[in-house]
Amino acid sequence: MGTGKVGADHPYLHAPHGGMPLRDDPQPRRHSPPALHPAVVPAYPPPESDADESWVWSQIKAEARRDADAEPALASFLYATVLSHSSLDRSLAFHLANKLCSSTLLSTLLYDLFVASLAAHPTLRAAVVADLLAARSRDPACAGFSHCLLNYKGFLAIQAQRVAHVLWAQDRRALALALQSRVAEVFAVDIHPAAAIGKGVLLDHATGVVIGETAVIGDNVSILHHVTLGGTGKAVGDRHPKIGDGVLIGAGATILGNVRIGAGAKIGAGSLVLIDVPPRTTAVGNPARLLGGKKGDDMPGESMDHTSFIQQWSDYSI
Amino acid sequence: MGTGKVGADHPYLHAPHGGMPLRDDPQPRRHSPPALHPAVVPAYPPPESDADESWVWSQIKAEARRDADAEPALASFLYATVLSHSSLDRSLAFHLANKLCSSTLLSTLLYDLFVASLAAHPTLRAAVVADLLAARSRDPACAGFSHCLLNYKGFLAIQAQRVAHVLWAQDRRALALALQSRVAEVFAVDIHPAAAIGKGVLLDHATGVVIGETAVIGDNVSILHHVTLGGTGKAVGDRHPKIGDGVLIGAGATILGNVRIGAGAKIGAGSLVLIDVPPRTTAVGNPARLLGGKKGDDMPGESMDHTSFIQQWSDYSI
Amino acid sequence: MGTGKVGADHPYLHAPHGGMPLRDDPQPRRHSPPALHPAVVPAYPPPESDADESWVWSQIKAEARRDADAEPALASFLYATVLSHSSLDRSLAFHLANKLCSSTLLSTLLYDLFVASLAAHPTLRAAVVADLLAARSRDPACAGFSHCLLNYKGFLAIQAQRVAHVLWAQDRRALALALQSRVAEVFAVDIHPAAAIGKGVLLDHATGVVIGETAVIGDNVSILHHVTLGGTGKAVGDRHPKIGDGVLIGAGATILGNVRIGAGAKIGAGSLVLIDVPPRTTAVGNPARLLGGKKGDDMPGESMDHTSFIQQWSDYSI
Amino acid sequence: MGTGKVGADHPYLHAPHGGMPLRDDPQPRRHSPPALHPAVVPAYPPPESDADESWVWSQIKAEARRDADAEPALASFLYATVLSHSSLDRSLAFHLANKLCSSTLLSTLLYDLFVASLAAHPTLRAAVVADLLAARSRDPACAGFSHCLLNYKGFLAIQAQRVAHVLWAQDRRALALALQSRVAEVFAVDIHPAAAIGKGVLLDHATGVVIGETAVIGDNVSILHHVTLGGTGKAVGDRHPKIGDGVLIGAGATILGNVRIGAGAKIGAGSLVLIDVPPRTTAVGNPARLLGGKKGDDMPGESMDHTSFIQQWSDYSI
Amino acid sequence: MGTGKVGADHPYLHAPHGGMPLRDDPQPRRHSPPALHPAVVPAYPPPESDADESWVWSQIKAEARRDADAEPALASFLYATVLSHSSLDRSLAFHLANKLCSSTLLSTLLYDLFVASLAAHPTLRAAVVADLLAARSRDPACAGFSHCLLNYKGFLAIQAQRVAHVLWAQDRRALALALQSRVAEVFAVDIHPAAAIGKGVLLDHATGVVIGETAVIGDNVSILHHVTLGGTGKAVGDRHPKIGDGVLIGAGATILGNVRIGAGAKIGAGSLVLIDVPPRTTAVGNPARLLGGKKGDDMPGESMDHTSFIQQWSDYSI
Amino acid sequence: MGTGKVGADHPYLHAPHGGMPLRDDPQPRRHSPPALHPAVVPAYPPPESDADESWVWSQIKAEARRDADAEPALASFLYATVLSHSSLDRSLAFHLANKLCSSTLLSTLLYDLFVASLAAHPTLRAAVVADLLAARSRDPACAGFSHCLLNYKGFLAIQAQRVAHVLWAQDRRALALALQSRVAEVFAVDIHPAAAIGKGVLLDHATGVVIGETAVIGDNVSILHHVTLGGTGKAVGDRHPKIGDGVLIGAGATILGNVRIGAGAKIGAGSLVLIDVPPRTTAVGNPARLLGGKKGDDMPGESMDHTSFIQQWSDYSI
Fold it and tell me: Is there a contact between A273 and A285 (Cβ–Cβ < 8 Å)?
């Protein structure tokens, strides 16, 4: 977790650059992000390369074209949402605008907002791609990139939150909160616009996820449904959990307070966590107890560590 | 659980024909389904008889006509959804189509799909009737069949999933997944199209229910809100729970992995279940411990057993 | 809890007049409601004074005007929902009608219903104001009254339920249940119309809250998301929890059966509560154990007691 | 034409009180309006009596109930538009609001506006009744009052214009013009809000009718489709036709300039009229020539005169 | 005009079987309808052959597929309206339902109605095909069958009227009038449901067309915009024009009264016709004068006569 | 009329550069367009100067802000359509998209199309400004630029047609025809995409206007409602009228065939014109006869001529 908010020196959070920066960072990153393990996603180009977005977009269009040909009843939907658009970010902006609009918040207004935000912030677009790769590689039920883009409400909720996060940083708070509210109603996912969320994040199923204002989530985190990252005690200020890179949080887990969940930790389903969890440690139960480091993790290299999490990740996936 | 998927020889799952078959079964069933106990639903005709559908439909129309007369503000809604239709399946198709449509997935398309699916698959229509009888007999807050048909999002989510299940079996997967997505957004109920669901199933309150791809649910099962039937460990393949006939799963329970919950078992609210649960056994806690067989269940006949579950069912109902 | 349903003589529930009466009470209340502690809401006028509604409404309009000026993209929304209306109850009626309408339940019908109900029942309007004050004073993420009015689905769900409660008491049950159904779909909050809910209640985040038919909730209660107040055992009759004044219920807590949660009690996040909880006592765990009275609460005056809860409330807030 | 705008002393326009007054007139009218001839509408109570509105409303409800019983496919529509409402003006306000709303002009806003305007201005309500009686008695294709209320776009356009006229008189011009615009789009009827329109007016078929800013139309006038009451010559000021009581204007007729069409005159279909037309005179042709007074009109009593117009009216009706 | 209404013995109207019969005619027609002249539509199969519907439908799908490939922005629309449907009548029913629906008349209801009507009445489907062939062969601006099916409001208005005509004949008058009303609003075309309309009819541009209750229109008639077929004189009864086969009526023409326009006659643009017009005669002017038979029409065979009209038809087309 | 289509050498059509070019013209125009006469629009900056668009846009915003302040009921509409937009073309694109969208042609798609077209074609934006100035200066009922932008369906129909014209020129004909169809339905104005329309054109009232495929309309033309520019005789090819600069066409006039209406001519209301009309000549009647040149037009300078037309224009305005 490299954001200043969390503290790069904290021993639990040593992944170099997690979190979603409030502004695009022109400086080169010192540590390249851990690549997805080749055994898991062997056919993919290196994540975050320049070619990623166009490659993923070409895959999405190919999938949509295949589905439109095979299923006439869905062809209109697929052309409207994917095949009539010139780029991934326009397709996403269109789809989000139609999902989140209401009788008092028109789709054209939201479409404009999403198109402009994605165009102005390359990091938002890179996060879209990373999240799509994450869902595709980690969720065995994910039938394709287009399946995630069109149907995963966790994916859509995060993309809308990232736009809301940019608005929040620009002090356009009323609009950011209105977006949060629509996402909470439409997707039943309630993430405060101020929360910082890294790349390659998967919200699987997503119903009922609640993430508080000062929460920070690293890169390559996977969060199941009904998970709460809540506050405790302080009326104002930094009061929500900090989640390190590569963490997996099982369904229904509740993490409260400004605690640190170290990189590569795993939180069991249904756990109640009120304390820090060291890196590569598993916490289970209500209240949670720590199970210590995992076997074979004594000297985990960054990338290895991540892939081991990913392999174990499916323990609680469905 | 009599479906081949679960294994009829498994000692936990000996109810003869649970689960929703992927295709209509022309063969006569060897075991007749256990009737609802007369003490619970004394005024009802025998369930699953040929006359059921028309009887339930006549009840629904009578209720709707009574409510339309008493409440002018609701009359338009009741005529549109119930009283203008010639049959239960057309009423349901209309109602589901209007609930699940979006600006990119038109109501006429969905209506066509639901009408055609219900017409082609008598088992879908029989399951609609059985689910209505289940809600009416088990839920003390159920004010009538029309109340369930129109207002229970769990009921509506299951009917839509059964149509998606048929599409999945016909290899129309993109459309099946699109339906799943709309159900997850509109009802906050996320059931994979491949999951097999029996008849007489009640999803009470239903918000937050998540059921994975290879899950199987028997007949006459009752599931409260926030219940997860999730996966664990295997990246692909058979990885979700198998729920026997007559099982009751309390609010917020999480069952993970390819475990077997035996017929007539009861899972306590908030439990985390990672192991098999024998028939007629109660599991409670996080992680769950087994409480053994229930008193008076030593020699449960099929029908008795079911009614005893139903009587106990309300332990966790609200 | 002063409603007859709960019993004013019950030792756990001695707050004088919680709950939402089924009909407007023309008699003067014997005990004035406990004021919010000045240390928490120092700038507010005395709650429930006659001037409250107009003061809060003037604040909401000022906030909306400020936001409309600062954010052109939101101005249309703010004028439609707030600035074009002559009173708080018309603004709320408009907003709720547009949120809850569907293709078969038109917004004009709902608007008519909400306007008429709020006009006829001053207690409904007073409760709106009290709930807005509660959110503003207790939730550190609440950016203003207008933020709560427009964006908090818990707030909106409660206001709709209170109208449904009035309809239920008038024996307009079909309409009341249709409202419940729409609230459950749109906000993922499922509260039976018969449940009695006091004033100054905060449903924070709100997703997944389920409250049963015979539940009673006192004044100044705070309930986090995923909380269930469910039934157990009895097929019909009084079967749901009674929540005293000033109680705090943490995220994901499940309270089942006709148990009494005493005034000022606190239920920990993720707890499963099947027994009575005495006043000013904390219950945690699955199943819950009692932690006894809190320090400094030996002689709690009503108002002190409330403020102590409110100060501690944020233990589980996010 | 008794309005001051037209000049009661003008020989062509001696009907005592045509036109729609800008404000409710508390003074008693000196001349009672000419009653509809009993031979034409024998079963009707005297027009403009106090009982008219309730009698017409009871007829409409009886017709709607009969149609709803006979035609289930229309029952929802009839309950929504007629049978769920407590009065004629609420039914009309609802129907107009749903017709004229758009994605940027919400139905609830328009409903509010129409309800408030009809409640505040008894003359608007009286004109609604008079127009319904006019359509019922003069149009042989009119199947009932409800047919006119629900389906006649000329009727609906006039009622909306009368509300816009009130707004115009209150100097709420932007809203009045927005209403005009919606009426012009939805009904293809373009009437300036400032135009004064009497009671008992029938716009039959109505498509393409255009009526300019300073036009005045008397009572009991019948106007077919494609009729223009346009201006000529003066850039500003009084520049449009004045139509006397009981005038009939055939399909496609064009009347331009501040000319006076005398009471009881008849303008042939397709005529172009640029000059005054004396009372009880027929004008036909392009440009129009006058055919002189009609036989038997030497001593026309007011009511006789009207009924003779009405009998002849159908010359160009369809 | 062979319908009994008009009188087959009338010398002006000797085309054998014009008009739309109220019920499907099981008897073989004595005279086959005049074929479209090969010089005009050389590539078309013989009209009204059994293969027509499938041939036209295959053309429409080919055009839509070509356009969807060439124009991604329109692909979603084309798949929704054409390419996802299994037959021409389902495509038309879907398109009409979405055009004519309103907030109180739902698209699913209309879709059901149109699908059922077209399925039950082969003559309706045959008329759809004949009208498409008419537009394609006569209108030089018609870019294809799909252009007419999707974009010609005259075509769509007639198809809706034919369904309303069937409803009227079944004494379902309230629904028939509701359809008329929606067509009048949406397409600005006002045709009474009782009017009988033949096959191969073209309403070009169509805005402002008004056709009265007892009007009858033969086969292969072409009518431009702003045309009125209105009534005169009789309060009730047969009071509207009868239009023979192959007649052409120019833009803005007004024909009033129960007059007969003979087969093959031509009515000039802007004419006012109050008298019978013999076959193969041209009427022009206000009021109209007759120009006598056309050269070369001394001995017109039926089919020749029709094609000569069709060749001359474009005199007033645009 | 300087477009090649019409022929710059034709004596009737000597205005230098009317019509809407199919593509932006990079070459400097040899003749500057005739300025609006100062006596008519004294306060306006010179038309077509670079500052026009920003000046008009600032006026529109000022008017909208004034109206929003004065009329809360309209404020939401004005913010959505005008005040939330950064430029005139975005406001227009938003407004048109919301007017012309349907359930199968989404507003976001149309918005995208209009934004892109207006951005790519400066001549489209210049024509928007010229048309606004034309309405403001010529129509005495025009209450402001915003009144025209928001409420004039003739203005909106022309702007949509100009975009369709660009699409037609790019051989995107299916989309162009779909736009034409929506405009014909929504505004009852039917203009073929191939028709070439100049700048400063006013369609007043606009209902029922029909303009054919090969019609050409010069600059500063005013056309009233129900006007037809139709074809005659030729099945294909150049078959519609050519309208010179500064022509005024009265309500209901019908002009048929490839005739030339010379610059500054005036066509009387209800006229039927089948022949050429020389410049500065008036044609009236059915069929039309020519009235010769106007007094004082013997030596009309271009700009004088225009203003004389504009002064006379209101002869038939309403």
Answer: no
Q: Which two tokens stand for residue B96?
A: 């589901």
Q: CA–CA distance from C261 to each of C14, C312, D258 (Å)?
A: 11, 17, 80
Distance from CA of B254 to the nearest CA of F (A): 41
Report whether pLDDT(F291) > 50.
yes
Mean pLDDT of E276-303: 71
Domain at F49-188: CATH code: 1.10.3130.10
Query: Count of residues for chain E?
Result: 318
With a cut of 90, say whether residue F16 has pLDDT above it. Answer: no
The Cα–Cα gap between D24 and D237 comes to: 25
Query: How far apart are the CA of C180 and the nearest CA of chain E, in angstroms?
Result: 22
- Residues in chain A within 8 Å Cβ distance of E76: 75-77, 79-80, 83-84
Which helix H or strand E contains C207, and what residues bound it?
none
**pTM for the complete prediction?**
0.85
Average pLDDT over residues D162-189: 97
Q: Kindly list the residues from chain B whose CB atom is less than 8 angstroms away from the CB atom of residue E98.
A: 106, 108
C-alpha to C-alpha distance for B285 and E222, rounded to whole angstroms: 79
Residue A25 has pLDDT above 90, yes or no: no
Q: Can you tell me the distance from the alpha carbon of D110 to that of B260, in angstroms, rounded to the nearest whole number?
A: 58
DSSP state of A315: G
Q: In chain C, where does the domain assigned CATH 2.160.10.10 lie?
A: 1-19+198-318
Kindly identify which residue of chain C lies nearest to residue D90, measuring between CA atoms: C112
Which CATH number is associated with domain C1-19+198-318? 2.160.10.10
Given CATH 3.40.50.12230, say whether it is the number of domain B42-188: no
Report pLDDT for A99. Answer: 97
- Is B8's Cβ below 8 Å from some Cβ in C? no
Nearest CA in chain A to B107: A73
- The CATH H-level superfamily of E52-313 is serine acetyltransferase, domain 1 (1.10.3130.10)
b/e map E63-75, b = 16+ CB within 10 Å:
bbbebbeebbbbb
Higher-pLDDT residue of F142, D13: F142
Backbone torsion region of residue F55, taken as left when φ is above 0, otherwise alpha when ψ lies between -120 and 50, otherwise beta: alpha
CATH architecture observed for domain F209-318: 3 Solenoid (2.160)
- Tokens matching residue F195: 């028709």
Architecture of domain D50-188: Orthogonal Bundle (1.10)
Superfamily grouping for domain C35-42+50-188: serine acetyltransferase, domain 1 (1.10.3130.10)
Q: How far is CA F83 from the centre of its chain?
A: 25
- Looking at chain F from residue 46 to 85, which residues have their Cβ under 8 Å from any Cβ of chain C? 68, 72-73, 75-77, 79-80, 83-85
Answer whether residue A118 shows pLDDT above 80.
yes
Q: What phi and psi, each to the nearest 5 degrees, are found at residue D260?
A: -110, 125
The residues near F25 (Cβ < 8 Å, ≥ 6 apart) are F123
For residue E284, CA distances in Å to E151, E272, E290, E291 come to 31, 8, 7, 8
For CATH 1.10.3130.10, the residue range(s) in chain C are: 35-42+50-188
Q: Directed axis angle between helix F153-169 and helix F88-100, to 10°?
A: 90
Compute the residue count for chain F: 318
**Pairing mode of beta strands D281-284, D289-293:** antiparallel
Q: What is the pLDDT of residue D318?
A: 37
Eight-state DSSP code of residue F43: T
What is the tally of helices (H) and strands (E) in chain F? 9, 15
Per-residue pLDDT band for B294 (boundaries 50, 70, 90) equals low
| CATH of span A48-188 | 1.10.3130.10
Find the radius of gyration of the CA atoms of chain C: 19
Q: Name the β-bridge partners of B217.
A: B197, B243
Residue E260: which residues within 8 A CB-CB, separation 6 or more?
E6, E10, E12, E13, E241, E242, E244, E276, E277
